[in-house]
Structure formats: structure tokens, C-alpha cells
Fold:
Amino acid sequence: MTSKPPTILIAGGGPVGLFAALLLGRRGLPVHLFDENDQPQADPRAATTHPGTLELLGAAGLVEDMARVGLVTPIVQFWDRPSGRRIAEFDHSVLKDDTAYPFVIQCEQFKTAQLILDRLKALPNVAVHFGHAVTTVEQSADDVSIDVQGPGGIERHTGAYLIGADGGRSVVRKQCGIAFEGFTWPERFIVLTTPFDFEASRGYCPRSYFADPDEWCNCFKVSADGPPGLWRTVFPAKAELSEDELMSDEAVQTRLKKFFPQIGDYDIVHRNLYVTHQRVAQNFRKGRVLLAGDAAHVNNPIGGMGLNGGFQDAANLAEKLADILLAGANENRLDLYDLQRRTIATEFVQAQTIANKKQLEERDPAARQHNLDELAATAADPARARQFLLRSGMIASQRRAAAMTLG
Structure:
């Protein structure tokens, strides 16, 4: 008679925590997941899913449904707003020999989370507890315990390992005393969502980036509840202005019309203002506690790499935990997880997203022109375009992580 495998605890019921639960649960491991919210959150922020991540989600049987409820977008464009010129266009089809997914899927993170949650309902060994907040973390050499505040009071749960996927304000990370190193941008990011069809009226593709020394913009489309979909515009917002000054009807209309002139007001269905950080946890592992997703790293949204990195954390970690608990692999594989995923978060995602922002907002005329010329030359050269998309599509980082060893 074989003994029941030990339980894995997960704090955080967003897409990353749910994906980790799915991968572990399908391997037969008992999983208990806890989230402080009463239900999955309809958070509209992250939508872009890159080829490197689609490879992992495809292996889990999710991509077809994501394409059904989202938008398949092979093209990305870069524009110079002052001149109105399209500087560069990249087509992911150049990656057809590198991946089965030579495209990006724009699928809002709450939709992806729901697709995963639907699949978890078929796994009797996975229990998902919404309305349950992890409050304390304690561990020994043999197990890890958490106190969870739920409707019935505080309960204690014990497992072999704990995955902290509980967001940028992670209780798990704080309970373990892990520093969250980095900085916070002085300006905030403002997101204005409208049904205005920028593709039909302006010729912008569903993923368009606008460089401007005064006020850059990201403009991308999501399917929302179905055709015709919605367009999200992301702008920097001056730190000295109050939220009321930035978010009033007059202010948001002025901002959109300055950038995208038109007669009459835009229909704005959502407006959000975010404080944005560039931070990475000092360690992704502390004993039997592992961090993943925003609990481990946060970054600005230019390039859409944050949630992608979280999904990649979950897949990497789930594979290693299953190897340890089911195949008897050495526990130092968790140190390899820390090395692989922290290196990618620090040297790739942080570096790339900071560089993306710098390029869009560059003010020095010579440097700005050099950036635009380089981007145009890269797009015009198929070999260079492929390398660009391998990096921006997070395939290169996945390959690099897979090649890392503990020495």
C-alpha cells in the first residue's frame, strides 16, 4: 500500500497560484489553495500572453480556450507619436520554426484564471478556498504551517511546502522576512479603456506602442465580452497631480484627445490609476517556502512581461516540487528554481521593462533618433527581427533558464 503524498499549500488564488495548483494537482499531489478574496478578481490589468508562456499553457491544454475568449495577435507595431509615423512592425510568424505558438494572445488575466479554475473543479485532490486569508507562516525542517482567517475563524493548515503567490504585498514574503528589493516609479500609470476602434479609424494594430518625449502611450485591444472589444490606453501620469486632477472627466478626455485627436468625447468605460514598482524578492526560496508571481517580482507593464513571468515561475516550480515529492529528487532542485527564476526576473524582465520605458520616453533628440532608427532596422532584417521577438516573446529567457545549473 503506497502512502498518500504530502500536501502542498498555496497562498494566492490569482492566475499564478491557480496555475501552480493545476499543474501539481494533475500530477496527483494534494493541494490546498487559499485566497483572501471572496471570489476570483476581475482584474483587467494583464492581458498579453507571449509565445514562451503559451508553450507552457498549451501543454496544460489552455491555449485553445484562451484564443476563443481572447484575441490572437501576431503583429506588434511601434509608432513615433510626434510625427505620426509607424517606425516598425514585427510579425511573430518569423518564429514559426521556434515555437508552435508564433503569436501573442490578448486574454485578460481574469479570463485565464477562470479557465484554470474550471479545470481545477475536476481534481478532487485540489481544494480552493476563497474568503480565506493567510495571516502567519511557520516552518520546521519537516513541514510548513499557516494560520488562515476564514469565515469560521482562524484555522491552522500544515503541508510539505508553501507557495506564496499572494501578490505584490505578499503576506508570505513578509512573514518570511524576505526583502523586496528595487524601487517605485515616481510617476503613476493611468489606464483608460474605450470601445473606440483604433484599428478601423487609425490603422493601429491590437498591440501598438507610441514613443513620445513628453507622454508615451501603449494602446492595445482586448476582446472583453465579445465583438467589438475594448481598447486600453496606458499613459504616464505626473507625480505632483492628485488622483482627482488626473481622473476627472475633463482630464481624461483632454489626455486622450491630445494624444489621439478627434471631434467629440471618447466613451470611457474604465479608468484606473496605478503605482508602479520595479522590485524583486531577495530570495525566491526560504526553506520550505517558495515565492512566485508578483510575490516574487513586480515590474512596469510595458512589454507585458509580469504575469508571463509568474506563469513561468509556476510551471518551473511545479515540475521541481513534483520531482521531489513523487520521484525522490534532491531538495536542492528548489535552489535551482531560485537561481533560474530570480536570474530571469532580475536580468531579463527587470532590465527589459526598464529599457522599454526608457526608449518610449527618451528625450535626448540624438538618442531618441538612434532608438527609432535601430528599431526600424531591426524590423527590416528577418534575422534581427527573429532575435528581437525571441526576446520580447520570452522564449529566449525560457531557454536560458533551462540551461542553468547549480554548478
Summary: The chain is about 40% helix and 25% strand.
